[in-house]
Amino acid sequence: MKIAVTSNGKTLDDQVDVRFGRAPYFLIIENDQLEVVANPNLSAGGGVGVQTSQMLADRGVEAVIAGNFGPKAYQVLAAAGIKAYSVEGKKVKEAIELLKEDKLKPMEDATKASHW
User: pTM score > 0.85 for this model?
Assistant: First the structure.
């Protein structure tokens, strides 16, 4: 499974970023291979959740872990068949392990209102 995790840094030891659309980095993991992607939408004026969701869909991501998701971002992810998981206060590697151990449940709705 190809997993993207929001991160405030470039390593698996960095924290899961609470923001989805404005997270500085996405760490994309597939078959124990790590790809670090700087978020190109970080300083865009608006619509970053939708743009970021589309970017991850275009990369073939199947699951996303972040602290929070806005309603538009969540809708785009759901429409693309990407499962969203909410985790806060964990390192990226801890969040990935929780997912692999089936200890995270896919979200059924956004965690934040628009423009939180």
Answer: yes
